[in-house]
Design goal:
The complex is a heterodimer of chains A (431) and B (622). Chain A has 431 residues and is α/β, with parallel strands linked by helices. Chain A has helices at residues 5-13, 118-123, 128-131, 149-164, 179-189, 213-226, 315-323, 343-351, 373-381, 391-404, 408-415; strands at residues 21-26, 29-35, 46-51, 56-60, 66-71, 91-98, 104-105, 112-113, 133-142, 169-173, 196-200, 231-237, 244-249, 253-255, 264-266, 273-276, 281-283, 304-308, 327-332, 355-360, 384-385. The longest helix of chain A has 16 residues, at 149-164. The two termini of chain A are 50 Å apart. Helix content of chain B is 40%, strand content 20%. By secondary structure, chain B is α+β, with helices and mostly antiparallel strands. The termini of chain B are far apart. Chain B has 20 helices and 21 strands. Classes of the chains: A alpha/beta (431), B alpha+beta (622). The complex binds zinc ion.
Amino acid sequence: MTYSESILKLLSSISADTGDVLSVVSRGRSYRGTLMPHHDLSSPDVLIIKLGSGYNVGVRIYGDSTAEVVGKHAAEAVTEATAECVQGLPRVAVIGAGGTISSRMDRVTGTVRPMLSASAVAAAAPEVSRIACIEARSLFSLFSDSMDSGHWQELARAAAAAMDGGAEGIVILHGTDTMGYTAAALSFMLQGASCPVVLVGAQRSSDRPSSDAPSNLTAAVRFCVDGGRKGVFVVMHDTLGDDSFAVHLGTRVRKMHTSRRDAFRSSDSMPVAHIDADGRITYNDCMSEPAREPELKDAMEKRTLLLQAYPGMDPAVFEDAVMGSRGVVIAGFGMGHTGTAMIPLVKKACDAGITVVIASQCLGGTTDLTMYETGRALLQAGAVPAGDMLPETAYVKLMWALANHDGAEEVGRIMQTPLAGEMSDRRTADV
Amino acid sequence: MSEDHEMMCGIEIHQQLDTRKLFCACESRLCDDGVGAYFRKLRPIAGEIETVDRAALAQAQKDTGFIYQCAPGATCLVDLDEEPPHGPDAEALETSLIFSELVNASVVDEIHFMRKIVVDGSNTSGYQRTALIASDGHIEVNGRRIGILSVCLEEDAARKVEDTGSLVTYRLDRLGIPLIEVATAPDMRTPEEVLEVAARLGTLLRATKRVKRGIGTIREDLNISIPGGARTEIKGAQELRLLPDYVRNEVNRQRMLLRIRDILSERGTGPAPLETADVTALFEDCGSKVIRSAVKDGGRVVAVRLPGFGGVLNGDDGALRLGAEMAQHARTKGVKGIFHSDELPGYGIGGEHVDRLRGFLGMTGDTDAFAICASDGKRAVDALTAAVNRANAALIGVPEETRDPLPDGTTRYSRPLPGAARMYPETDVMPIGITQERLESIRDELPELPEAVEKRLCAEHGINAQQARQLIRSGYDGLFVAIVAEHGMAAIAATTLLNTFSELEAEGEDPSAFTDTQLSGLFGMLKDDAFSKEAIPAILKEMTKGVDADQAVAALGLETVGDDEAAAVIAAIVDERADFVREKGMAAVGPLMGPVMGALRGRIDGKQANDLLVKEIRRLIG
Ligand SMILES: [Zn+2]
């Protein structure tokens, strides 16, 4: 609660706490109702009262305003629903990482926070417990904008532990803002995963009747149980309706809209599969993961940069950052270009053993550094083309490659070798 | 003291505003066609949430899906719940503040929008956004002070276009249109006063000049009770003139229920048992069409005993009608109706069947009654259970309930009175501070009050006070002034907007649907003598098809005729009746005016026709 000094003084003088029933008289008007928490964007001299009708109103408090506690807050017993495990159904681990899918309004602070447990989120979709035995566990409660490679590592270890424990599928409840990055990171960290690892989020928080959380989660669990695929995926709405879901490959997916339910799109490939309202799965490819020994390789090089080329980009601005790093991904123009002014810096970095990867900010299509003069100059400077990898995926892969492989040459080779479906030599007309 | 005096009524008015939508930049208008079909479900909310909400939502969403249609220009991602709401429309907010001042209500210092959970799919978000703008106001009507409890600003719901039971289709054009909701205290004491107060509030709303006109743009809820009765809410009345009928009928209904309660109490009647019996076998040879067709379709005939309820189901020459109430409750379970013993024998059910049933049910007392229902077995049992529950409620008196208004001035049971809706803060919309300075400047520039408009209309346009008052009350004062400013003809304009419009309404047309341009066109043509004023009703009637005045005039063949052409038509009429004219002489003018006007109506005015007719008769009789 962050009411202003003067309001806090008034409240403490009458020993009022959030939730108490107050009678407030200010400038001849009187209001009676429950004291609500301060709203971040409310005026500092305004007290928020919930009236008997259910409406909140802001009452401006002046020096001569008075307040009186007429009823103390009786704490409501709150029991959070929990997901069930019906024995005999396939075991699916649900790991909570926070995000909108785990969010609801906090009655104490008045803000929307990722405070729901993984089990409570799963319980809101009762059909989930009819298709799988849910073993829920909350790892952290973060909005995904606050996540970093340390969180990816924790998630990878939790997923590996669940796999070792015999889970037949793993679902991660995750914020949508950086879900594409986490999905890519887990794809490289958990190569050869023995079961599907599905990241799922929501564009509408779970405290709304229209939330997309329950239907997305149901589709994700359905894919774990019936999908027959291993690897890392993202499952979200495929359209604006609650009856159509897309399964994206973890290295190919990107958030392409700030608010729509179908914000996630696969780049340069069709989504792996489509799931309809009845849980029917239709595949868009016949790809099957080659059998591999599962291994957890979760080291990440944090001294890695992701830059976006822009007209007039001044190398002087970036020199210290680039030279202080171990690797840089530049989302270049078109086929993979920067302004010519950047080329000496790229050369300087490559000469110093720093890996410079050139992706394209077009997001669709592959880089080709041999077609134009600038591209050739970048190649000659030592830059590595990212092919049709998304810039974000290239960035995460570079972090992983730098931490798990030695030498710039080897890292450059790894960057151009497909490891988890992140790049391809073939692009078709239907995407 | 009038016998209606012992009643209390409060009104809640929902008025659409003529601004952009409340939380997006869409136009607030309805569209004839829906585009797209987005399937959605609404669910109970995860985590901390009260049991009642869960139960209500669980019930509401049981296998029900919703399809949402868009409308070009009138819907966007916000309406589809695909983008967070924008800040409330500035003009709509300003209008709610102006109206609050007009009803002397005190505006809150900071406005907080809330989410009111709505379970029927009419809001894509699953809640309606609403904010309390002001409270504690009053208006004066015929010297009485009527309290204003609250003025709220909220969003209208989506329009239902189809309902198959498991799938409900809504069009999103109406969703998000701003509504002012004003609620009065239960201060009204007569049905007439309810009308007066509703009319006054409507006039004050229109005084803001930013409200929509026409059918469906204003909806009234009435809360009615009598001493010893209970609060009944009549929800969604759209026709102002029917309000007194709704009130009067509801007062009478509650009185009737109190009378029934007293009769039952005097008899010592207790609650009827909630036991149904399958009596299909007793009706095997019954002549009733309803029963025969139900049984043929595999249905059952189910009966319940109502000991002590005889004579109040339908008695005292139709003054006691508990049976009708029970039937309305039964119908909510999906049956066509029930039969009860006060209306039997009848409906093809003979005395012998009634006696057989009485015997079977052991109904021996004078006041023992029963009810039967023929339908699908489970449905019939549910329906009769609802009917018995309703009968038992009569032992206590008047149940609180929500009722639907019907076009004949009566109402019908719709559902129990809902509990107070749970409201949660709308975290997507920021609080809005309202300063005293802002309110001061609104007060300094309040719109002209209806009284002042009335004086001005009389003084400037020479119409009488009654006409002025009616123009204001019906919301046509602004249009009247605009027409007169452009074309003059104040008297004709007033008559048209009042009398002709109400005649059109009586014929089931909606004159408020005319655009200002359409009407301006009409009076412009009249001013140019394109037709005579007698033709206005016919032209307007034609214009209700959505055409402009010139097209209507052409379609009706009403272009004015020149004197020569008119003279020729009249000469032909006179010649056809030459014998009659010769016999009557100039006395034939009166009788012949009929056929002449019939042939030329609307294309020539009466005086001109008379002159030409006199001339033609003179010509004939020399
Ligand atoms: Zn819109």
